[in-house]
């Protein structure tokens, strides 16, 4: 283990003890490890820190830096898993992290954009509007009068994150090496995936691109508003976007005071998430309450407004299909199909008995079916899921960790916003509609047309590949082809070149003509198919 990692572990231990957090760790393996580290720092003793346990935990996470703050933010959305006093304090990490000096922000902006702040903006407030773990935002006004917010990366934050990621890699390596049961969790790959995510979040130009894509996806939407990005003012460490106004989604009392339809708001949140995951395959993956606001212009049909697009997720089409199929099988209480999908996808070993996994899934799912969020003990469900995963040697899928984190945020937000929300009944029609649209003939043909050029390219090489396979099947491996035979093969292929090109072209025209007929009422589109048939006949004549 590198000295920098050991040094960071000592720092973590000092912070934990100084804030009196060892009371959280008694009886755990982490406490035993920290107790062992005390031998390396004999003068270190637990502190009699002042303040509530929630406040001490928040202060410790703030002192330890961005990765720990993000962990606290994620926990803050799960009030069903935490005592209220701790949840209330951790909620402050969403947008009340201690800021850095406004003069540093101004210096960063001027260095990045190459002009004084007073030249760039008509007005600029050096006092930050909000501060988070990686950046803070300031309000400003462009020279043309448009109101904006300026997001500035914290100075030196990249070094802090790199140091903690190295610690995570070291701990993951130790876990894989010495705890066999942890290996199925694939901690090394999970840390790799997290490192990619957090590194992307440090590039504000990438965040600007994410916001632009989300804004395009939800253009003219009645569900979600995404602010406009002002690209001329964006750099890797500075981002300028339209300022939005709304009620924080966590301010339930204010929303009720304004007669906002809370049930509709919660259901819209579910629809937004599944639309992003299934239709767009591009989802906002940092949806804690500090990043979500509500436009209350129309209280009966409230609209969300999102900020902070540093973390977005996408899914491999195969994973996307399996997840949607799993959800639908669950809604239908088809637990055998859920078990089969887990085996087919490779999420559990191939030798897993489907009937046993089906029974285990039923045991976990039946108690929570048709219940509102307020009646589901998520902690109990989580423990049962862990037990099932361990029993069937279910491996963690690192590529899905971001989606799972987002689902936890969504479910936690829904629980806080409208506890009587039936998550399953709200999501089921959305999934069924997506599956119907995905499998419709029109969309299948669109997919074929989109992949047409690749198909044509493959068809071009098909005759050559076939001839090579035949040669390999006829000719023994020990008898390589002579130079004369290779020349003869080359001559034959050259003579057949025109025929192959004509065949490929004809097939392309036939497929294209047939597809276009499905999307157009113009009979002339059939000409593609007729020309293709003619070329195919000519190719057949050349064959003779």
Poorly predicted runs: 508-513, 515-544
Number of domains: 4
Strand content: 5-15%
Distance linking N and C termini? 73 Å
Rg (C-alpha, Å) = 29 Å
Give the count of helical stretches. 24
Class from helix and strand fractions? alpha+beta
* Main sheet record: 5 strands, antiparallel
Give me the count of strands. 11
Helix content: 55-70%
- Which overall shape is indicated by the principal axes computed on the Cα atoms? globular
Mean pLDDT: 77
Describe the overall structure.
By secondary structure, this protein is an alpha+beta fold. It has four domains: 3-94, no CATH class; 157-198; 257-439, no CATH class; 442-543, no CATH class. It is 59% helix and 8% strand. It has 24 helices and eleven strands. The protein has helices at 3-18, 22-25, 29-37, 53-64, 66-76, 84-91, 102-113, 117-120, 157-178, 187-201, 204-217, 252-257, 262-280, 317-331, 335-344, 354-365, 378-391, 401-417, 423-438, 441-450, 452-474, 483-495, 497-519, 526-543, and strands spanning 121-124, 130-131, 135-142, 147-153, 224-225, 238-242, 247-248, 283-284, 292-295, 303-306, 312-313. Strands 1, 2, 3, 4 and 6 form a five-stranded antiparallel β-sheet that branches. Helix 4 runs parallel beside helix 6 (84-91) and helix 16 packs antiparallel against helix 17 (378-391). The longest helix is centred in the last third of the chain and has 23 residues, at 452-474. Residues 508-513 and 515-544 have low confidence and may be disordered.
């Amino acid at each position: 283990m590198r000295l920098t990692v050991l040094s960071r572990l000592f720092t973590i231990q000092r912070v934990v003890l100084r804030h009196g957090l060892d009371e959280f760790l008694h009886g755990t393996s982490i406490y035993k490890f920290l107790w062992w580290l005390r031998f390396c720092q004999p003068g270190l003793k637990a502190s009699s820190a002042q303040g509530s346990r929630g406040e001490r935990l928040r202060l410790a996470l703030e002192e330890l830096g961005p990765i720990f703050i993000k962990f606290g933010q994620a926990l803050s959305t799960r009030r069903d898993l935490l005592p209220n006093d701790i949840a209330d304090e951790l909620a402050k990490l969403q947008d009340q992290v201690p800021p850095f000096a406004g003069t540093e922000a101004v210096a960063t902006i001027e260095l990045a954009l190459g002009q004084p702040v007073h030249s760039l903006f008509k007005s600029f407030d050096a006092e930050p509007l909000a501060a988070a773990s990686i950046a803070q935002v300031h309000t400003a006004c462009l020279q043309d009068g448009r109101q904006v917010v300026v997001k500035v990366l914290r100075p030196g934050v990249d070094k802090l994150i790199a140091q903690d990621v190295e610690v995570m890699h070291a701990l993951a390596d130790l876990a894989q090496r010495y705890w066999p049961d942890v290996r199925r969790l694939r901690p090394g790959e999970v840390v790799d995936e997290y490192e990619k995510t957090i590194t992307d979040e440090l590039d504000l130009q990438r965040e600007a691109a994410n916001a632009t894509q989300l804004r395009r996806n939800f253009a003219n939407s009645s569900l979600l508003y995404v602010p406009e990005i002002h690209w001329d003012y964006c750099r890797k460490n500075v981002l300028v976007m339209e300022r939005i106004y709304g009620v924080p989604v966590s301010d339930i009392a204010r929303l009720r005071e304004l007669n906002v339809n809370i049930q509709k708001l919660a259901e819209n949140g579910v629809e937004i998430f599944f639309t992003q995951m299934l239709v767009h395959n591009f989802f906002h993956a940092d949806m804690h309450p500090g990043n979500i606001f509500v436009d209350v212009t129309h209280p009966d049909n409230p609209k969300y407004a999102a900020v902070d697009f540093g973390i977005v997720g996408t899914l491999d089409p195969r994973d996307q299909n399996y997840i949607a199929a799993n959800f639908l099988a669950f809604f239908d209480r088809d637990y055998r199909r859920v078990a089969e999908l887990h085996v087919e996808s490779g999420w559990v070993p191939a030798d897993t008995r489907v009937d046993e996994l089906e029974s285990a899934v039923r045991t976990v799912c039946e108690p929570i079916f048709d219940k509102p969020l307020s009646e589901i003990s998520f902690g109990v469900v989580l423990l049962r899921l862990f037990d099932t995963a361990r029993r069937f040697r279910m491996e963690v899928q690192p590529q899905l960790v971001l989606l799972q984190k987002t689902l936890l945020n969504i479910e936690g937000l829904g629980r806080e916003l409208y506890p009587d929300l039936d998550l399953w009944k709200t999501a089921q029609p959305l999934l069924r509609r997506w599956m119907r649209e995905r499998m419709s003939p029109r969309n299948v043909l669109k997919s074929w047309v989109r992949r047409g050029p690749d198909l044509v390219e493959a068809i071009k090489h098909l005759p050559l590949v076939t001839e090579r396979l035949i040669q390999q099947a006829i000719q023994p491996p020990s008898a390589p082809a002579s130079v004369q035979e290779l020349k003869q093969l080359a001559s034959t292929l050259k003579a057949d070149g025109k025929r192959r090109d004509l065949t490929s072209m004809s097939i392309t025209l036939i497929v294209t003509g047939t597809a276009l007929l499905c999307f157009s009422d113009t009979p002339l589109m059939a000409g593609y198919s007729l020309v293709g048939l003619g070329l195919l006949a000519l190719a057949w004549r050349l064959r003779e």
